[in-house]
Write a structure and sequence with these properties.
flat
């Protein structure tokens, strides 16, 4: 156990040394490459203002998203009414989409349970 701790301590020390040597160069390079996205002055107040703008912009986009959802629901209803006329390819794509949704649901459940397959820890 003590040897593992020493190894971990050594690796942490190496990582710290690497970051202290190369971290500033990477930071400067990253800022330089993305300088068109930086708002001046880079202060907490600017960040708060941008966060507020993002929130209200997303809030303003809700009616458009709602309309798009309604259109998609109508398309689904229309496809359901004409399901006898659907091609095998369209049915296959729909089945794969449903399977993918179920797989993502299962993955979310596993993550929510703390990466266990057997059940929730009670």
């Amino acid at each position: 156990m003590a040897s593992k701790l020493r190894q971990l301590q050594s690796k942490a020390c190496q990582a710290t040394q690497f970051l202290s040597k190369h971290g500033e160069v990477y930071y400067k390079q990253l800022v330089e490459q993305n300088k068109e996205h930086i708002q001046e002055p880079p202060t907490v107040e600017t960040c708060n203002r941008l966060a507020k703008q993002l929130f209200y912009t997303r809030l303003a986009s809700l009616p458009g998203r709602r309309e798009a959802l309604q259109k998609e629901v109508e398309q689904f209803k229309q496809a359901w009414k004409n399901r006898k006329d659907m091609k095998v390819e369209e049915v296959g794509v729909a089945a794969l989409f449903g399977l993918e949704c179920f797989a993502w649901y299962c993955a979310g459940e596993i993550v929510g349970r703390g990466f266990t397959f057997t059940g929730y820890k009670v």
